[in-house]
Every structure is written in C-alpha cells, then in structure tokens.
Amino acid sequence: MAMIAPSLLSANFADLAEEIRKIEKGGADYLHLDVMDGNYVPNITFGAPLIKSIKKISSIPFDVHLMVDKPERFIKDFVDAGADILTVHAEATTHLHRTIQEIKHYGIKAGVALNPATPLNVLEYVLGDIDLVLLMTVNPGFGGQSFINATKSKIKSLRQIIDSRGLDIILEIDGGVKLSNAKELAELGVDLLVSGSDIFGAADIEAKAKAYKDLFDKAL
Ligand code: DX5
Ligand code: ZN
C-alpha cells in the first residue's frame, strides 16, 4: 500500500507543533522536510536546528530532502538532527557514490533525488547502494506547483527497474501531488507520495491526511 509524507514546507510555521500533531493523527507515514539553500534552488527554507527541535515533539520518521549544493558538507548535521532518511540530489554532488556511502555510514537510509529533466541512468551504478529514489515531479524550489506529466513515464520505468532487479528501494515522488491525482500516481507504482500544499493548505489538515490514507487503502 502506498504511503504519504506531508511536506512541512506548506505548514504554518508559527504553530509547527500543532501542525505536526495533526498530520500524525491523520496517519502520515513520514514527515517530509524540504531543506533549501537559496543556491541549488531559488528559495531558502530551514536547516538542521529546526529539524532537531521538532524531532523532540514528533513520533513519525523524518524524510529529509536536501536541496542544497554540495550536500556532503552537511550530512552529519542532519543525522544528528534526527533524519531517518537523508536524500541528496544527484545534480548537486560531484561524488554521488561517496556521498551515499557517507550517509549510510551513519546507519540511516540514503536517498537520491532526480530533477524532472535528469535521466534515470545517472542511478545505474548506485542502485545497489541506496534505499530510496525521489523523483521530482515539479522543478524543486517551491510548494504549490503543477505536476509535470512527462514524469509519469519516468515513474513507470523506475518501477520496472526496481521490480525486475528485485531491488529493495522506496520509490518516492515529490511535487504537484493532490488527493485528486494521488490514486492514479500510486497505481503507477509509487511507494511514497509527498504532499505539501494540498495537505497543509486544507481547512482540516488531519482529515486531509486521513483521506489520502483511506484512498490508498481502497485503491491498492
Ligand atoms: C519542492 C519540494 C516539495 C514541495 C511539494 O521543491 O521538494 O516537497 O513541498 O509541495 P506541493 O505538494 O505543494 O507540490
Ligand atoms: Zn521535497
């Protein structure tokens, strides 16, 4: 069954503890945390200190998505802050294999994210080393953008690669996911769907998170 990772990017930052409580009550599987550096992407969000603070008041695993240049500089900071999955962009690190090994050295899950225009073949020689692939279904930087339809064939291709090789890899997508397209996307073979604005922008955040879970329950 597909899982859901609400992205804190679209939450009310004046009341994070309460926002997190709502998605936990709604059954969220992970909390997705978008770290942006204003360089790799044209936006700045938050870093390890904020994650460390909210880790203390949260009970679900943290799925940390680093949209920063040279993410290898910060791996230990995010491990210490409480990341359960740490995902780096293949486009942002020169020595991807080494960066993955560094993450795994700390005993947490290592993920690799690919922008919509980046081909799957950059993963060819690291697929055996990673726990998660995050396919961006918008260009990274902002919440609330529209899903890029051309990424659907990429999702299907990656699903086929994972299954045919018997790999133990979580297929995650990020960007433009709504309750209205989540069923179709889950049926393409996505394991973990990130949803930011649709969940945290809802009048009833807990109910919206729960609606995703119910949808996956029925669909698959
Ligand atoms: C975009 C971020 C996403 C974003 C998704 O750079 O990585 O996680 O929060 O937001 P929505 O669900 O609003 O497209
Ligand atoms: Zn993200």
Gist of the model:
The chain has helices at 16-25, 48-55, 75-81, 96-105, 151-165, 179-187, 197-200, 205-219, and strands at 3-6, 31-36, 62-67, 85-89, 109-114, 132-136, 170-174, 192-195. With 220 residues, the protein is of the alpha/beta class. The mean pLDDT is 98.
Description:
The protein has helices at 16-25, 48-55, 75-81, 96-105, 151-165, 179-187, 197-200, 205-219, and strands spanning 3-6, 31-36, 62-67, 85-89, 109-114, 132-136, 170-174, 192-195. It has 220 residues and is α/β, with parallel strands linked by helices. An eight-stranded parallel sheet has the order 1-8-7-6-5-4-3-2. The termini are close together. Residues 7, 9-10, 32, 34, 65, 138, 140-141, 143-145, 174-177, 194-198 line the site of D-xylitol-5-phosphate.
